[in-house]
Design goal:
With about 210 residues, this protein is mostly helical. The chain has one domain. It is built from four helices and no strands. It is rod-shaped. The mean pLDDT is about 80.
């Protein structure tokens, strides 16, 4: 903001008051315009954050659904392998197949929009009632992601038993079965967390639609 010296000299106290009044009014107008511009910018940032939340949660919702759809098939594969390992040993000389380790079905859901909104303080421009559904959705999605990571660790632990079932001792075979059952239990945890994540995403998306 620039302050200019009056073109005409101040000859009286009245001229001084007039000049001060003009300067003050100019400053107030400038500050007011600056506040209006800043307010419009904050509203724009908040609206952008809401739109980003909506798009991201829709993508996350589809990824969670894909993982949940794969869980029954994964459990079936785990059950089949447990049955093979627990079956009586094949007769001597009979061909022995390799251990068929079940696959892993995970999808790393994203929270980039939420993290960005926190970093840029865009959340401060939104009322609590509109932020709360998103906070709940992203919180449950993080729980779902943690559950997936735990399942990944359990799956990775299976590989230490190798590929040849004939090379395993009875204790190792029991340990492998136990690890497979542990991995199977993670599929149920993923389903529980995933269903909660879907419900939270639906509530947040409905709130955005009704509030926009």
């Amino acid at each position: 903001m620039d302050l200019h010296v009056p073109e005409k000299p101040i000859r009286s106290f009245r001229d001084f008051l007039i000049h001060i009044g003009i300067v003050t009014i100019g400053i107030l107008i400038a500050l007011g315009l600056e506040q209006v511009v800043e307010l419009r910018h904050r509203v724009h940032v908040a609206n952008e954050a809401l739109a980003a939340f909506r798009d991201e949660l829709r993508d996350d919702r589809e990824q969670v659904r894909e993982v949940l759809d794969a869980m029954p098939k994964l459990r079936a594969a785990i059950g089949e392998e447990i049955a093979r390992i627990e079956a009586p040993p094949a007769p001597r000389g009979a061909p022995r197949g390799k251990i068929h380790y079940p696959g892993i079905y995970i999808d790393l859901v994203s929270s980039a929009s939420w993290d960005t909104a926190i970093a840029t303080q865009a959340l401060t421009e939104l009322p609590y009632s509109r932020v709360k559904p998103f906070a709940e959705a992203y919180g449950v999605l993080r729980l779902f992601l943690d559950t997936e990571r735990a399942a990944l660790e359990s799956w990775a632990a299976l590989r230490r038993f190798g590929d040849d079932p004939a090379a395993l001792t009875p204790d190792q075979r029991r340990a492998l079965v136990e690890q497979l059952r542990r991995y199977e239990s993670h599929t149920y945890l993923i389903e529980t967390a995933g269903k909660s994540a879907l419900q939270s995403c639906e509530r947040a998306l409905v709130d955005v639609k009704s509030g926009s």
